[in-house]
Amino acid sequence: MPMQGGLGIERMCELARVSRAGFYRSLGEQAPGEEEMEVRSAIQEIALEHRRRYGYRRITAELRRRGMLVNHKRVARIMRGDNLLGVQPRAFVATTDSGHELEVYLNLARRMKLTGINQLWVADITYIRLKTEFVYLAVILDGHSRKVVGWALERTLAARLPVAALEHALAERTPPPGLVHHSDRGVQYASGDYVRILRKHAIIPSMSRPANPYDNASCESFMKTLKREEIYAHRYENLDQLRANIQEFIEQYYNRQRLHSALGYLPPEEFEQAATTAASAAGARMSFFRHEQIYQSDGALKNGKPADAGLPDHRLDESAVGYSSAGWSPPEPACASPAEVHSGGERAV
User: Fold this and answer.
1) SS3 64
2) Could you give the count of Cα atoms lying within 13 Å of 281 in the half-sphere of its Cβ?
3) Structure-derived torsion over alpha carbons of residues 130, 134, 140, 143, reported in degrees to the nearest 10
């Protein structure tokens, strides 16, 4: 209600020799609807004026600045009823649970120099907020072309989410043996079901260093693009609507139309088509380190030392201790030979 001059309600009641309870009761009996609408209208005006950045405390203060004495609890109740509560920052939802005792695999992705598709796949999981729930998206990208080769959307973070994305990718690409699959250390990617599928298709697992998102930068970049250009630009009513929009964004727009700066401003599919047959057939190169020095695989020595000795480009937390390559010996792809040697301590895989 409007403030009368500089006197408060309590002082005016004292001067009039009436109780505050009686005053408010009388006020409510006289014009409850009109006064309620006046307060509600002022609250909506302030909330919209400040683009819903103000919470109930600031709106209460602004109402008082405008000469309206309203309790902050009443303001909060009205704002809640009119869905005018201030926009809250999006809650962070952890999608990586690395606190498990499953096998953790050596980081091979950062040692690879890609020459074609189906040499390295990178995988990740993110969350998407709907009106009343969180849902989760798992994607797999080809490390060379940045094309999304598999994805899955579910209400759960269980292992079946990335498994569905992996099965989608395998059906889409049918990669040759020796493909490296890189992910974070999440329990979903280290689970028995997931590893069994990798082993069945002779795919070599690779995992990032602890708390280092840069090892999976291409997939992180795609997630950022997806959220900025699709998710945050729309409001989704339910999971089915979200699934349809994501499918259209990934398969019709991102893979086929969107220009990618890392690919010379070509869409991923056009980049793959433009790659020459020779480059596509060449195997990926990978550097191996021994005794903190780079040794040439042909064993060439100069003065009893490696021909190209130098400090390796790796960290102490990437030592072989604590890691596993599962003892796999996948069949060599047709494009690589065990005897093929490259200078600089690199071997085709």
Assistant:
1) helix
2) 6
3) 80
* Rounded mean pLDDT, 116-134: 88
What does the block give as tokens for 99? 């606190």
Per-residue pLDDT tens digits for 182-215: 998 888 888 889 999 999 999 999 988 766 666 6
- Location of each CATH 3.30.420.10 domain in the chain: 109-262
Place of tokens 């000795």: 309
**Measured between alpha carbons, how far is residue 184 from residues 111, 141, 246, 313, 333 in Å?**
16, 14, 23, 20, 26
Tens digit of each residue's pLDDT (9 = 90 or more) over 132-143: 788 899 999 999
Report the pLDDT value the prediction gives residue 312, as an integer from 0 to 100: 40
Q: What is this structure's pTM?
A: 0.54
CATH of domain 109-262: 3.30.420.10
DSSP state of 296: -
CA–CA separation, 328 vs 204, rounded Å? 8
> What's the token pair of residue 253?
């727009």
